[in-house]
Description:
By secondary structure, this protein is of the alpha/beta class. It has helices at 23-40, 61-72, 86-98, 111-119; strands at 2-4, 12-18, 43-51, 76-83, 102-107. It is 43% helix and 28% strand. InterPro entries: SpoIIAA-like, SpoIIAA-like_sf, STAS_dom_sf.
Amino acid sequence: MVEKLPRSEGNRIGYEVNDKLSEEEYEEILAEVKDAIEEHGSAKLLIDLSGVSESYAEFDAYEEDLGFYLRHGEDMECYAVVGDDSVMKWGTEASDLVTDTDIEFFDEEDLDKAWEYVKE
């Protein structure tokens, strides 16, 4: 289940993902990011995955995620990933190396720091 976070404003968009993220929900997130890019010229994204089990990667989300940011990286100012999983952290760090988007991983207790990161 995905919930858009109330701190979302303008080109800063945040989502909390609980349990398994479906492909349809993931596509909805990407569509909203594309809309923000079209409306504001860029987007800043925060995804809180701290409530997600290991099933996050079941539908190759990392591959889709990376593909999206390779195509739209110059339009993404930054991307904060919040979680408590070493695989998520590794995936975030690897994506940061190969995309134009500045991508940072934050531990779940640092959610406020992640929001500050996307506000800069």
